[in-house]
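Give me structure tokens for this 257-residue protein.
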Amino acid sequence: MITVVKCGGQVLDDERLLEAFCRDFAALEGPKVLVHGGGALAGRFQKALGMEPVKFEGRRVTDADTLQVVTMVYAGWCNKHVVSLLQADGCNAIGLSGCDGSVITASKRAPLTLSDGRTVDFGWVGDVTPASVRADFLNLLLEQGLTPVLCAINHDGAGHLLNTNADTVASSVAAALGAALVTCFEQPGVLRDREDPASVIPIINKETFEALKAEGIVADGMIPKLDQAFDALDKGAREVRICHSSALLTGGGTVVR
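Here you go.
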């Protein structure tokens, strides 16, 4: 079975965590695909350039200037740095954005009208589905012994790059490949108390997810992460687990059912 691993959060901004994660990912048996984010680093670069990151419900609003920054960070430094670490660990990785081989196309997200009449325009943000993933191309790379490393920059087929939530990319790729999905970040799983790393919720289903949102236990960036986990399961992924980057090989974390 293919395993799709998503790595994000503060892991890509912490060299010690990233190097350890790459060693574990390289040791993961079987065909595999890595999807990475880089939002923390992109936000830091934006601030260094005098730009203020804007998010709505955990998702980055991407104007033209922001698109340039996230493309440089995600498809440039983050992607090639991860690929170089994996190569050093004996994993024959190949770094790709969505426009490379047109492996992932996306559609520009329409403005969102809120219940109070306000409109949120996400800008150059793309949405992907399993149907927009070239599973045949990814399988061809895997058959050749290559490990695809995908960033969250995709394209619309008409010359426009689009910034896509990395969890959305990972869930769509997992569903398209009928793969297991493991989402790794700096927390040990979904926490009942965000200040207590021992408060991992071991299993979450759709009913408990709605209750956790209503109580405010699950909020901010964890909402789209879990939304995409359920979407992956609904559309063909075999299983989903959310865990700390150090638990990729050892299990644990939160299982989404």
